[in-house]
UniProtKB/TrEMBL annotation:
<protein>
    <recommendedName>
        <fullName>Fe2OG dioxygenase domain-containing protein</fullName>
    </recommendedName>
</protein>
<dbReference type="GO" id="GO:0016491">
    <property type="term" value="F:oxidoreductase activity"/>
</dbReference>
<keyword id="KW-0560">Oxidoreductase</keyword>
<feature type="domain" description="Fe2OG dioxygenase">
    <location>
        <begin position="161"/>
        <end position="282"/>
    </location>
</feature>
<keyword id="KW-0408">Iron</keyword>
<dbReference type="Pfam" id="PF14226">
    <property type="entry name" value="DIOX_N"/>
</dbReference>
<dbReference type="Pfam" id="PF03171">
    <property type="entry name" value="2OG-FeII_Oxy"/>
</dbReference>
<dbReference type="InterPro" id="IPR050231">
    <property type="entry name" value="Iron_ascorbate_oxido_reductase"/>
</dbReference>
<keyword id="KW-0479">Metal-binding</keyword>
<dbReference type="InterPro" id="IPR026992">
    <property type="entry name" value="DIOX_N"/>
</dbReference>
<dbReference type="GO" id="GO:0046872">
    <property type="term" value="F:metal ion binding"/>
</dbReference>
<dbReference type="InterPro" id="IPR044861">
    <property type="entry name" value="IPNS-like_FE2OG_OXY"/>
</dbReference>
<dbReference type="InterPro" id="IPR005123">
    <property type="entry name" value="Oxoglu/Fe-dep_dioxygenase_dom"/>
</dbReference>
<comment type="similarity">
    <text>Belongs to the iron/ascorbate-dependent oxidoreductase family.</text>
</comment>
<dbReference type="InterPro" id="IPR027443">
    <property type="entry name" value="IPNS-like_sf"/>
</dbReference>
Length: 335
């Protein structure tokens, strides 16, 4: 895998160029920048709302805490911890999660999302993200030289589980360099320590990540060298990554690359970092069988140690996307 910089998929370039850059992303990190995607003006408005929401008092946000039976709600700091391999790591982020199934029911959402056009803005943004994923799926089908609707037909809007959107806030940290050193020391002594967001791979097919104020923090893991690499934030480019489902579908050709959010650099540590993640999941009954493409049909899937997060055991039973999602969600530890 090469990490010198992520490939750029420019949606205003020709289909051939898009195919080439997608192929490049498929063969390297499974991450790419998406430019000229058309969502930038909308994204700015949504970030204003994101900031307004997270500035509300904690008790007000907690009135809409995510419950085990709902697909949307507020997650306080430490509630969702994504590194399932290290139960001592607490994610120092707060989030608000929107499940597609709740998007029509405004009454369940915090007051601030009811004001003026805010709820319509959220819905429009959600739909635009979904449409953008469908567009990428069509380009990917061309890249794999298979039916144009191969992937889109597995992501039908009206079938569960649907997509999920998360507003994310990483509060300022006053960890100085010496505290950073002490934190890593304490992990050896069974203390819980906090980290903006623990290492994980995404569970679904595609993730869109919107960043704000060009504030970096995202890092991707290079399996071949065991090293973390920072991903530069550019507000006008969406960072897109493939999730576990594509690793299954492509017999490991596409990596569901592990990533995390690291502590900010010292000059940025007094600023909040905001991001929006949009997670696309195939319909629950979709089988995780290989894509019928000559690019991968002769491929032998050799699972490396990092694929164990995708393949929890060695039984050869073919999972559905729904079973896989449930298995990953069960492993996300919460307090
Ligand atoms: O906030 C970020 O930069 C990354 C978010 C992410 O990876 C996730 O929520 O799965
Ligand atoms: Fe992620």
């Amino acid at each position: 895998m090469s990490f010198s910089s992520l490939p750029i998929v420019d949606l205003q370039s020709t289909s051939d160029e898009i195919r080439q850059s997608l192929l490049n992303a498929c063969f390297t990190t499974g991450f790419f920048y998406l430019s000229n995607h058309g969502l930038h003006p909308l994204q700015d408005q949504v970030f204003n709302l994101v900031k307004e929401f997270f500035h509300r008092p904690l008790d007000e946000k907690l009135r809409h805490a995510l419950s085990p039976t709902s697909y949307h709600g507020y997650l306080r700091i430490g509630r969702e911890n994504l590194d399932s391999t290290n139960l001592k790591l607490i994610d120092e982020k707060e989030a608000f999660k929107f499940g597609q199934s709740g998007l029509n029911n405004i009454d369940q959402f915090p007051e601030i999302f009811h004001h003026g056009e805010n709820f319509q803005l959220i819905q429009t943004f959600f739909h635009s993200c979904y449409d953008l994923c469908l567009r990428l799926f069509e380009h990917l089908a061309e890249t794999f030289e298979i039916n144009r609707d191969y992937f889109t037909s597995k992501h039908q809007w009206d079938k569960p589980p649907g997509a999920t959107m998360k507003f994310l806030h990483y509060p300022p940290t006053n960890k100085t360099d010496s505290i950073r050193a002490v934190s890593s020391f304490f992990t050896h002594f069974n203390e819980c320590i906090s980290f903006p967001q623990g290492a994980h791979s995404d569970y679904g097919s595609l993730t869109l990540l919107f960043q704000h104020d060009n504030q970096s923090g995202l890092e991707v893991f290079d399996r071949s060298t065991n090293q973390w690499h920072p991903v530069e934030a550019h507000d006008d480019k969406i960072v897109v990554n493939f999730g576990d489902v594509f690793e299954y579908w492509s017999k490991g050709m596409i990596k569901s690359t592990i990533h995390r959010v690291n502590l900010p650099t010292v000059d940025q540590q007094h600023h909040s970092r905001y991001s929006i993640a949009f997670f696309c999941d195939p319909n629950g009954d979709t089988l995780l069988t290989p894509i019928p493409s000559k690019l991968i049909q002769d491929r032998i899937y050799i699972k490396d140690q990092h694929a164990t997060h995708v393949f929890p055991d060695d039984d050869q039973r073919i999972l559905t996307a729904g079973e896989h999602l449930q298995m990953r969600l069960n492993k996300t530890h919460t307090y």
